[in-house]
Amino acid sequence: MAEGPLTAASVQVAILAGGLGTRLKPLTETIPKPMVAINGKPFLEYQLEWLHRCGFRRILLLTGYLSDAIKDHFQDGRRFDLSIDYSVEATPLGTAGALKWAEPRLDDPFVLLNGDTYLAIDYRAMIARFQQAGNAALMAVYANADGIAPNNVNVSPEGLVSRYDKSRSAGLTHVDAGAYVFRKQVVDGIPSGRACSLEGEIFPSLVATRELGAYPVHDRYYDIGTFERLAFAAQVIR
Fold it and tell me: Which pTM does this prediction carry?
């Protein structure tokens, strides 16, 4: 049966929120990285507010490290006019491993965001492009003229990610902006029972099979991976 038009209200958003935040220690010794405060409010709350503004209502938080701090604050999401569910890793499994652990709770398709990255784009337009293109996955990519991070992506004339490499930026033109749309088949292909990385294993595999589309964005993203980036994000995100 043909799939009907995807809408924000019908699409689930999963957010990777289980990292250890080692570069933000000692701050993250007592709180998980997505709960680090910016202007008096947890970083993750800004992400959820933007998603709500875009029309999304169903959220799955992929947690692990100090997960109770996240669950205690957001609970079932009703306070934020959202429906929030949780997948809690028993041990750290990496970005792809967290998805595999959450597989029974994931819809087909779903939006995936990094829990330490704020990208204020119209995600409704992104899911429309995803459905139109028909690939297994779509990645938001930023042209990075301001050099906010080393480039790790090349985009083909057909609109596919033709190379993904986080180890060498020479010759690459864009940077992964931390937002994706996935078919459930991507999760099916993630090995179970061990840690696995989207960046190291899954994205290169999708590139090789020409199943990773590129969605160019013109708004830069803000991440809180280091104290310097956290301070910069605090100047912009309100």
Answer: 0.93
